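Narrative progress, year one. The postdoctoral researcher (J.K.) led the effort to move from monomer predictions toward full complexes, under supervision of the PI. The following entry was the first complex the group processed end to end, covering 770 residues in total.
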Amino acid sequence: MKQLLIGNAAVARGLWEAGVRVVSSYPGTPSTEITEFASKYDEIYCEWAPNEKVATEVAFGAALAGARSACAMKHVGLNVAADPLFTLSYTGVRGGMVICVADDPAMHSSQNEQDSRHYAIAAKVPMLEPSDAQEAYDFAKAAFDISEKYDTPVILRMCTRIAHCQSIVETGEREERDLIPYEKQPAKYIMMPGYAKKKHPMVEERTAALTSLAENCPFNKIELVSGSEIGIVTSGTSYQYVKEVFGDSVSVFKIGLANPMPVESLKKFASSVKRLIVVEELDPVIETHLKNIGLKPEGKSLFPMIGEFSQKDVKKILLGKEEATVSADSPIPGRPPVMCPGCPHRGIYYVLSKLKITALGDIGCYTLGATPPLNALDSTLCMGASISGLHGFNKARGNDSEGKTVCVIGDSTFMHSGMTGLCNVSYNASNSTVIILDNSITGMTGHQQNPTTGYTIKGDPTAKIDLEALCRALGIARVRVVDPYDLKACEAVIKEELASREPSVIISRRPCMLLKYVKPKAPLKVDADKCRTCKSCMRLGCPAISVNGGKAVIDATQCVGCGVCRQLCPFDAIKGDEE
Amino acid sequence: MMKNTNIMIVGVGGQGSLLASKLLGHVLIKQGCDVKVSEVHGMSQRGGSVVTYVRCGDKVYSPIISEGEADFIVSFEKLEAARHASMLKIGGAVIVNTQQIDPMPVITGAAVYPENVLEELKSKGVKVDELDALSLAKEAGSIKAVNLVLMGRLSRYFPYGEDVWLSAIEETVAPKFVEMNKKAFLLGKNA
């Protein structure tokens, strides 16, 4: 059947058809929908794990048990899952196992622009790289055959423009597969030195075998054009940009098996052209391989290492041509993402900003508190770094920082890797104040359940981790809960906890305004006669409030009646419907 | 070979451009086109500037549209139309909802909203097809139907019959919203 699918849905379809039984993932843009779509197939047990390391280990366990399994994550998630990955390369699998990882060139929704191909090379595992949704589906399915035949996990490398692009996919049907009987094999699965030493040579042999596969496999596509002086080696979306510009007029070697890459077939391709050019986003991985095998390609001397490409870049760099354009003369103000009207994080950030508190931040919607006018954050590094970072900050500065420095971390991020940081705060006794912004969902990635919400990925009720009890169990005696819509209460609690001489956790609790069960209240209005344009309400950075005609105005289409702005108006000019 | 048609749908996160591109993709695929639709999820959706690329033709390679390549820009907001004007092909058209939504730098006073930006584009020869899609959406029954009003307007530029679009609405929209969305579509088309 032919259908229009986004790349991530195509991957999920491929997993399902390949007979996958278990999928465990942590959400992360642009990988999230792989698991969301997979969860819609009843034959797949699907879950949100607390983090990518857990997810990968769950998939390993399922593979060890003889099932086909998968996990999905964004590029930085693979950093978290790197520990199991590197040794999984040694143990291999029993049922096939695929790790789907989605890179984000141009950082549409990420904190860095790392290139996941390095992981495949470093961990010595095969990596497939599709260039559209059809290939995402095909490669996801085929990855399991490689996994089982070569006894290795396989990485499927997606990127934003594959993951979130819909194109036409011809799908098939699910192939039911029996569980492979479990068999105890200590020398294969227990990686202590004696056994691991025997496994390493097998990993090297496997790479050699996979390199032979790469010489002649359906994943690499050679499009030779007789008389073409230029030969382009490319992969993923870059292939599409090359084809958009050149059509069938130049010779192209499209790499689909990104690791290991072939040797002889690339040498032969190079010998058929005068000029060998590599078009690849991010790092010069293909280029380095070509140089290693003695070829002389042009790559990063022409194309940037930064950001994502488009047909425009290929056309400009290789043909020196540009399309004519028009534009407005007036400067166009930027429109950065902002916290939504009624966002529960806004109240806490307003108080932190007002009190001029240093705040170490974390990964999630609440990173947007860093932007004007709140400017409430001082750092954002990676999942969980707010708490451990605060501990280090306070250890370094002691009394100088303890009373005026906090960290903020979301509920899902706390479960992902904040707990260990908090454990360190209590164990190594820093006088740190940790604020958990509990909006009862994984927000930024589009509302995924997590261990604190009480629901599974399918929406079924399940055990709900009690954050207060968890923090106490991790050694924090002072645990407070506050409603971020109540600015006075927030200010009082933050001041008290900063003044206390022991570690503390403040749980700022209110569900995300975008959750379906959260009903917006009637929009508020500004009484223009009472408004003196003091702009106190504007300090919140609420997108529903602006100044128009010399007075503050609340946009009724955006306002959800949270009432936080009302608490700031010194002239009582902001009214609800009832007044 | 049929020339590719490139359509950009631009707006502010949360305005419903996802349904617009879903509908458009559905119509195009039914007409036998090769189609690619690209959008960005995640952080930019939070009230930021959002962009969807829709490309169709005999064979579409690139999932995205580059500067000077768009045949149409469908904009949910004035400023966003201007922001992406350089994506337009010379001779291309902008279909724009005349709603103004101040971005945060304007709200904080760090920048000024360029009020006459559509006039500027017109003076440079850009075909600007403007309509008050918000009012038409209200008339249809929901301010959220701005997307369908704009799709109705865009449909004027395509050679497909009204029935093609209306049945696509039936196939892509939740049943209880079909009538309202059809009304919004027709209001946009005939306004």
